[in-house]
Design brief:
This protein is mostly beta strands. It has one domain: Jelly Rolls (Sandwich). It is built from 3 helices and 19 strands. Strands 2, 5, 6, 7, 8, 10, 15, 16, 17 and 19 form a 10-stranded mixed sheet that branches. A 7-stranded antiparallel sheet has the order 1-14-13-12-11-18-9. A hairpin with a 2-residue loop joins strand 13 and strand 14. The protein is globular, with a radius of gyration of 18 Å. The protein starts with 13 loop residues before the first strand and ends with a strand.
Length: 300
């Protein structure tokens, strides 16, 4: 996960990861670009992206009748530990990289996770010193123990938090050794300062540097993501990476062999991501109904 900055050609502009998340840009330039922000990136449509590299053909909708379920988390309970092993979820990225302006903390009773009536709530609060703390879930630990899948369809149903500074996400990540290229697929990044959009992006990371596709700005009715449940999904296959909102395709990216490496599921409620958090309301929360994964059925 990296902070949002607009780019001219999403297939060719590299990122450099510094201190876990921040791009290698001078503060003045970063501030100027962030001011351009969403308005500049709104023009980054599938049509303009195609000028950089040919786009694959993506299905307009997802048909789950073509898939077999491989992972189902209904959140009737929550099996989580700080870093595993032996639990379904861990509370940190397997590479131990926090990001954003809120620290992901080890789970304790009632914080940062709570489960009630089949719903997971990820909480974000400030401590007595004014530091923000929140939660992240990963389906794999640092040794690759847990759920990972190469291809298929991955989906979360959730209500996002409201307010400037919030940065919830649903994404896929991968483990790799030094020098190896590993994929990251961001099916959802929502910046609370713009309640009418979310972003979808793909990355191929090699030694802290990324080759990106996107971000694709997905426009939605204002506040719709924070007032009702929506399904955020992504299919990853050898021919295309297709991002869905409520079963409808909203972003289409080229695939590559590196994207087909085993990937874990990740959910988090972050803060900042390059935007100020001084106006972020207290006690933010993200509510998740389920997380599921599927693989395509063999053709008869």
């Amino acid at each position: 996960m990296i902070p949002f900055l607009p780019r001219t050609c999403p297939w060719t502009r590299p990122w450099t990861r510094i201190a876990g998340t921040r791009p290698d840009r001078p503060h003045a330039e970063r501030s100027r670009l962030l001011s351009a922000g969403m308005a500049g990136c709104a023009a980054l449509t599938l049509a303009t992206t195609a000028a950089c590299t040919p786009l694959p053909k993506c299905a307009a909708t997802i048909d789950l009748r073509q898939y077999r379920q491989t992972f189902d988390e209904p959140f009737d309970t929550l099996d989580v530990s700080a870093r595993g092993p032996g639990t379904r979820w861990t509370a940190h990225t397997p590479w131990n990289g926090d990001f954003g302006s809120s620290t992901f903390v080890d789970p304790e009773p009632g914080f940062p996770f709570s489960v009630r009536d089949g719903l997971l709530t990820i909480h974000m609060k400030r401590d007595a010193q004014g530091k923000w703390h929140s939660g992240l879930l990963s389906s794999s630990d640092a040794q690759g123990r847990g759920f990972l899948q190469r291809t298929g369809y991955f989906e979360m149903r959730a209500i996002l938090p409201k307010g400037d500074g919030v940065w919830p996400a649903f994404w896929l990540g991968s483990l790799g050794k030094k020098g190896e290229t590993t994929p990251e697929i961001d099916a959802l990044e929502h910046y609370g300062r713009d309640p009418a959009t979310f972003l979808a992006t793909t990355h191929l990371w090699t030694d802290g540097k990324s080759r990106d596709q996107g971000p694709k700005v997905v426009r939605v009715p204002p506040d719709s993501l924070t007032t009702g449940m929506h399904r955020y999904g992504v299919s990853v296959e050898k021919d295309a990476i297709n991002v869905f909102l409520d079963g409808r395709s909203v972003a289409c990216f080229a695939s590559a062999p590196e994207y087909l490496k085993p990937k874990m599921l990740l959910i988090n409620l972050g803060a900042g991501g390059g935007w100020p958090i001084d106006k972020m309301p207290d006690d933010r929360a993200m509510t998740v109904d389920y997380v599921r994964a599927y693989v395509k059925r063999p053709r008869p």
